[in-house]
Records
---
Amino acid sequence: MKKSILGLLVILSMIAVACGGSSLEGEEVFITGALVGNDAAGFQENFDSFTEETGIIVSFQGSDNFEQEIQIQMESGDTPDIALFPQPGGVVDAAKRGYLVALEDVGVDLDEYKASFSEYIVGLGTVDGVAYGGAHAFNLKSIIWYQPAEFEARGYSVPETWDEMIALADQIVSEGMNPFCFGMESEGASGWLATDWMEDIMLRTGEGTVTYDKWVNHEIPFNDPVVKNAATLLSQIMHTEGYVVGGTDAIVSTYFGNAQDPMFSKDANGNPGCFMHRQASFITSFWPEEAIAGAGTETTVFPFPAMDDGLPKAALGGGDMFAVFTEGNEAVNAVVEYMLSPTFFEAAAQRPDNSRIYGHVEFDSSLYSKDITRVLADAITGALAENAFRFDASDLMPPEVGAGSFWKEMMNLAVEGPGYIDTALNNIENSWP
Amino acid sequence: MKKYSQQEKLFNFGISFLALGAFPLVWFLSQAILFRELTDLISRNMLVVIGLLVGSSFVFLLFSGMERLIKLAPRERRDSLEARMFAGPSLFMIGLFLFYPAIRTIYLSFKDRYGTSFVGLENYVWSFNDTEMLVTLRNQIIWLVFVVFFTLFFGLIVGWLTDRLNKGEAFFKSIVFMPMAISAVGASAIFKFIYEYRPPPLTQIGILNGIRVSAGENCYNNRVIDGSLKDYADSSCNRAIGWLQQRDLSNFQIGQNLESASWLDNVLVNLPLNTVLLLVIMIWAYTGFAAVVFSAGIKSIPTDIMEAGQIDGASELKIFVSIVVPYIKSTIIVVGTYMVITVLKAFDIVYVTTRGDLETNLLAVKMLDEFSKYRNIGRSSTVAVLIFICVIPIIIGNTYREKENSSI
């Protein structure tokens, strides 16, 4: 028995050697990331056809604790070949500390990469002029979810400008209901929903993307009048009596994934708990089971309303960015090339549970399983073409601010009320390293 | 005492060196190198199998080899050499996995965020100036005072009362002890549901809010009565409250009543309700442990002392204060010490429930935040050192007490 197993092993290894030759057959590439569940399965499926073609075995390991684990792995030198960071900030940080391999060194043609994902996106993963971050899938944040049937039944129309939205909100309040759902509890990341609101407002006020970029890079202080204006407008939403269902308690205590539940639930008078919910495209996977089927039909989106005149239609988004740790490995280079190709996301896009949007301009958006994803994808590519697509600012700021004081002060602002705006902004400004 | 010849001394030294230095080093390095090389070559499952086989047989061979060497030593030296042989690897391991990291952490606490250049005491200055750190330290103190006091207090009461029961003592003790059997994560999850908040018009599933919003006329927590839905959105009904987000009592009637009065009222108004609600979880979880230990201590009190007290006409309270407590003093100190260290290490409750949001952070969670969230190795190490410093006096005190006890 033992002999036969040994013999089998010898034969198998001989076959492997014989097949190997000059190709990359049987080479293994290990990728880690923060994706779990359906998203992780979708990501892994993307490599099925690639493995069939090249023989390179790609294995993806997702973890809820990816951000901690990758820190430990970098410190100890036990890194994966490629890591899929949930934010570009992670890539920039790792690159600054010298752990990453530049994309050019793994055979990426930068011009082609810029052409297919836009210069802005490439710039997010660039440190001192060297590109380290590979673009991946995005989500769109500049959207407001609503239920057309509820709007129609009450004669409301979709607001196109901020003022129209405020007028609609006032009307809803005067009719004894609450216009907005708002919940930003998020287990250690609480507050990011308010930072998203701020970012969307920043993109649409002042000089739009210009002030936005200055703000992200700290070329204007955090207590600049433009930023204060944005905070004041956000406070108007959070603190106007009756605007948010449940008031302050709901804002700070509701888990962001459950924040939209009031929209799907009726009170004693048959009215929904709220009518509008500003949240990114991925929120659909947090909805109650019975609501998911109606995504894009029963419950759909309108773009975040325009604010100041003369600014292009901006879109705010977030998303993953991958980075390479292994240098001089042909198999890894082939995987990187594949990950930046227009066909990469096909398998994941066709999964019914997918809500992620692939950033490549040549990606065939008809492949998305849901209509709503297609609409959102077009909004992103449209904004990219106008150079009005911007990444989540809090993800780009230094972690002390973007994952620290900015979130924290937004929570404090929600609790303390509009009188706290100046203190909040000053505190954030002072915490900037 | 027998004189050893030069040769024997050398031999002894050689064996001791082998046992304490060379042997563990060979033992550790050989396996580290072997498995480092193997990880890239074979699959993980194979590695586990090989690890079990090779690792254990390697240890066996090394130990039996050492045993043979020791057999060559003079008989009267063998015992101490054997002891060294077995202690050697553990000392080595403690050094490698405890002392080395501890010293390196202290070293890193004087360095910058990447751990590359020295910044002197900057991190320590930060830790006593940063508002968030100050709140974290404040919480840690509140936790220490409340959790240690109340666990001891309730533990003593339960231990004493169950001891006075004629029957059912085991039953009641096991009920109080039950939370100990639940992991802290599980306990936190349970309490998270107790404190749960949902925005209206959703049904409140948290028991505290469920009770709160059902109080009052016409207020029902989304119950259907006579075919019509009764909710709590009526303005006469109580609002649901996000319990774990209340940093003070200003949202409550009691808080408003207390406002603008003496300093004591001021302290009460600013009572960080969320922190208190979180530390209740720990008290709940550890009271049973304290009660069981105290109950064992109370059982060891000789009955004649108690009877003497009763005959002298002392009340139950008097007996408790004057006989029971002094008699089990050392047990109370041991449990207290254990609780202090447990509270300083407390991590899971805050991590699972609020993750440190809205001024509920604790040092252990802050340490992790600084490391993984803000990617600041220096500050993270500083927080770790602070926890370490807090534990030192307790360890020293305990060691002294042990010495006193053993000298009696």
Note: Chain B is about 70% helix and 0% strand.
---
Amino acid sequence: MSETPTHAAKEIAWDRKDLLDIKSLSADEIQLVLNTAESFKEISQREIKKVPTLRGKTVITLFYEASTRTRVSFEIAGKRLSADTVNISTSTSRVQKGETLIDMAKNLEAMAPDAIVMRHNVPGAPYILASRLAASIINAGDGAHEHPTQALLDAFTIREKKGSFDKLKISLIGDIAHSRVARSNIYCLTKLGADVTVSGPATMLPREVERLGVRVVSTIREAVKDADVIMMLRIQKERMGKVLFPSVRDYSRFFGLTPDVMRGALPDAIVMHPGPMNRGVEISSEVADGPYSVILDQVTNGVAVRMAILYLLLGRGGGYEDAH
Amino acid sequence: MKMLIEGGTVIDPAAGFEGPADLVIENGKIAGIVNPGAGPKDSETISAKGCIVCPGLVDIHTHLREPGYEYKETIASGSRAAAAGGVTSMACMANTNPVNDNGSVTEFILKQARANAVMRVYPIGAVTKGLKGEALAEIGDMRESGAVALSDDGSVVADSDLMRRGLEYAKTFGLTVVTHSEDMSLVGEGVMNEGFVSTELGLPAAPHEAEEIMIFRDVTLAALTGARVHIAHVTTAGGVRIIREAKKRGINVTAETCPHYITLTDDAVRTFDTNTKVNPPLRTQQDVDAVIEGLADGTIDAVASDHAPHVDDDKQVEFIYAKSGMIGLETLLPLSLALVEAKKLSMRQLIRALTELPAGVIGIDAGTLKTGAEADVTVFDPREKWVYDVSKSLSKSRNTPFAGATMRGRVKLTVVGGKVVYRDGTIV
């Protein structure tokens, strides 16, 4: 394990049933998650990548939207902690037959899961489950609202690479308006003390975004200059032409992260992307695969952070020592 | 048959009367407002001590769901909720199934109302056939059958030429056209107000400018045609400014707002409670303040409930999928009274916005206690505090963000045509 500075969070207890958003977390709670993740990261480097911490616990992933990375990351996190994981996606659930979310929730509850990891296209959907079910609900992305574990794994990666968030300059570039990753990251990084800048065409900047405590700049070059961390957001190509941007060509020319743009970056800047990437659109392959990129570290750290979340939500009352 | 409502404070803005007095009712009509104790001794006497006695409330914006959606509301159940709210006359929108776009549906509504309603129901006909915004509905036919106004309400007439023709045709028949003024192409998929709260929640949102653009179009068309236009549920500061200016220019326009637009902001949506989803959406505090100011200076004439019943199946779903609207007949008065409590409006101003002015908008004989008028009377205690237990609502639906909220001001007695229909919590 690499040497990382100690991040002594105040001695706080995790007393939440659910992880629904970053907005309601305190900086100490976030640091607790990151510290916990740090101790779990090592498990994934062992030859036998499994500890019995969550033996007997059932984790359901309930995905109303297609996703590979996030679902697999949660599944691997659960399995490495010995939880039983069950996956429900729209193709195998009854969603398409018109079952309501509440009926789905009641049916799942009847099978006594310990946690439900939920992705849904509508903001607020996980809150419907959280207020009705005894199981812990983990929001794995609700519409354009929040994606808390993504922000936590991003923060973990930044902390690993940069040590501290104090006065760290972080730029988020792309479709801020429709991005749950952007919202969760803005909450998370500002709580941790970073200076956050956002940039994108005006069609992708939500109204009064500066009230989230971020600086707005209009060109990618300005956003990249002086940034310690450059976080690119995924462009949804299906929004092209209709509302947000005229063409891939126009977007990539003015808002794509290319080697040319990177020439204006700090030498030790890191480049992040939550994935999946549109190569040649918001990010060029040379940058995505280049020396600045920590994109695959994000994926690796995603497992550790999700193990930490599952542990904090489900593993209380024993078992932690088993992990060490 | 004589009735005496004694010991209260009578407020009848239409007659310019306000003060301690007794109200005499005879043969279903108002027989006079008399000095305390000066009423006839041989009448049935009802005490209104500590209460305000005013004309029965007139709610010009409701959805009664009959025909077609009787599982949400019927004319019978809606009228009982209305009576409990002190409403003695209400107009119901045309978005039933079938749509009220021809005389036979208008007649059906009136027939059901005569048979089952405990207060007066006035149908509003559609402007366009099937609310589709493509061709004019049979306006003359509906008028003859008893429609009091025209509106496509939430199905906004986007085509400005068609709207112009609808206004002209309505004018020929002396009918007011009630508009839901929102540019739906700008609203897009919006389910809440666009602003800082929507930025935080990530819900698709509609800018307040969508309302302002369409209010401007509608008052401009009112100027062009000389027709009477009534802007339903005004929610924005910009909308209030445009209407104020239009009135100053002498355009024939009136406007209403609803209790939720003067008591709630888009902050309420943070709970993701689908009962806060309403069309147009809840706005910001700045808008709320401007709408209240509009009521105070007469830019906005009336307060209406926009009673929009929906069952749990329509509301207990994800926010984007939920139907819009909330029930409001029973809370119309207490929520509005908050403005008097906050000294934004005088009691007389508020009562005027709930009686005389809305009656004038749709041109019905109601909203006054003048001698000879139909004896539609509401008596309420402006100070009584109570908790709104929606499980006991007389509406068939339960969709309100005010469930469990403490209300101040409670209807004690509702009289329709000289007959007591609601008294102390019970339909008589």
Note: The two ends of chain A are 14 Å apart (CA to CA).
